[in-house]
Design a protein that fits this description.
Elements: H1 8-14, H2 16-27, E1 28-29, E2 34-35, E3 50-54, H3 56-73, E4 77-81, H4 82-85, E5 97-102, H5 108-119, E6 123-128, H6 134-138, E7 141-144, H7 157-176, H8 182-193, H9 195-202, H10 206-217, E8 221-226, H11 231-245, E9 248-253, E10 271-274, H12 281-293, E11 298-302, H13 304-310, E12 316-319, H14 328-347
Parallel strand pairs: 3-4, 3-5, 5-6, 6-7, 8-9, 8-10, 10-11, 11-12
Antiparallel strand pairs: 1-2
The protein binds fructose -6-phosphate.
Organism: Swingsia samuiensis
Function: Catalyzes the first step in hexosamine metabolism, converting fructose-6P into glucosamine-6P using glutamine as a nitrogen source.
Main location: cytoplasm
Length: about 375
């Protein structure tokens, strides 16, 4: 049941801390502050490329994973949505690894890519919530998220659980490839293990998120901006808003604003910024100032340091707990999803069963 929550989505949003915590419990050694994944059938040092494929929110988790694998493990990464990857006829490298991400393990396009990349000789690693699924059976290695059942059509806790697995995998690859030392591994792992308590703290900011939701709920179009590893979180925010509140939203890497979308901006098109002070902040800030100068209403997710600098620029600021830049995309995903939920409540939509959507897309 819903345990007294109004919707499954609300319940599942509150399960973020537990989903992250339980997932990490399986794949870390908390005492040693090291990563302890199941054994991989290849040596990451010999892998020439990882090919990441998924759909929807799981694809955005994969985009974050690309930043981690590239920057921490110096691992070349190819990524696309499954419906495109399936028909691209892209060349696959010898000894390559295919990384599939799926909550359900049944998504038709992702499964299609799994099968074709397996034929191309790639090792198949899947990040799944439902481990006893078709994808689970057909993979060489399953990295399980421990998010528990997700009933709401919109994915919530599975997203942060996916990110937790991808973060751990990136640390593991970095260790094997010799791109981080033990002290760095311990520091990165500690910042992951700290996440459940930081995630719980996000819920003390709900009133500020509601203030933001009142602005968003009046809009017909909303722009989400992020930079670097927070760009996929902007995509996730825009997808969730469209999906459950039926308000049109688009996400951009903030640096792209002046290459087109800035012409959309006026008082009626709010700009939601994913802007932790630790990630290319000054650059994002200057993009937000440009948007404000064109009459845009700026709504920002940031931390205490960022909030100081956003004063006078942003109309609503949600100040989140301080976290290491490494885990910021995981933490910031939570308030971004809560925002979509709060807007949907104001709009009175069917939050758990948005129109035209199914939980698991088993047809192409
Ligand atoms: C968005 C959402 C969808 C799924 C996508 C992939 O809130 O739920 O975009 O993320 O359909 O589903 P799985 O992860 O089951 O492959």
């Amino acid at each position: 049941g819903k345990d007294g929550y109004r919707h499954y989505m609300e319940k599942e949003l509150h399960e973020h801390p537990v989903a992250i915590g339980q997932t990490l419990q399986r794949i870390t050694d908390p005492a040693a502050k090291t990563i302890a994944l199941p054994e991989l059938p290849f040596n990451p040092a010999d892998v020439p490329r990882v090919t990441i494929t998924a759909c929807g929110s799981a694809f955005y988790a994969g985009m974050v994973g690309r930043y981690w694998l590239e920057s921490l493990a110096r691992m070349p990464v190819e990524i696309d949505v499954a419906s495109e990857m399936r028909y691209r006829e892209a060349p696959q490298p010898n000894k390559g690894v295919a990384l599939l991400i799926s909550q359900s393990g049944e998504t038709a396009d992702t499964l299609g890519v799994l099968r074709s990349l397996k034929k191309e000789g790639q090792s198949i690693v899947s990040v799944l919530n439902v481990e006893h699924s078709t994808m689970g059976r057909e993979s060489d290695v399953v990295l399980g998220m421990v998010a528990g059942p997700e009933i709401s059509v919109a994915s919530t806790k599975a997203f942060t659980a996916q990110l937790s697995v991808l973060a751990a995998l990136s640390i593991e690859f970095a260790r094997a490839r010799g791109t981080i030392d033990q002290a760095q591994e311990e520091k990165l792992t500690a910042s992951l293990l700290d996440l459940p308590s930081k995630a719980a703290e996000v819920f003390t900011r709900v009133e500020d998120i509601q203030a933001m939701a009142r602005v968003v709920a009046e809009a017909r179009d909303v722009l989400y901006l992020g930079r670097g590893i927070c760009t996929p979180i902007a995509y996730e925010g825009a997808l969730k808003l469209k999906e459950i509140s039926y308000i049109h939203a688009e996400a951009y890497a903030a640096g792209e604003l002046k290459h087109g979308p800035i012409s959309l901006i006026d008082r009626t098109v709010p700009v939601v910024a994913i802007a932790p002070s630790t990630i290319l902040f000054e650059k994002t800030l200057s993009n937000l100032q440009e948007a404000k100068a064109r009459g845009g209403r700026i709504l920002a997710f940031t931390d205490a340091e960022g909030a100081k600098k956003l004063k006078g620029v942003a109309e609503v600021i949600v100040t989140l707990p301080d976290v290491d830049a490494f885990v910021a995309p995981i933490l910031y995903a939570i308030p971004v999803q809560i925002l979509a939920y709060e807007v949907a409540l104001l709009k009175g939509t069917d939050v758990d069963q948005p129109r035209n959507l199914a939980k698991s897309v088993t047809v192409e």
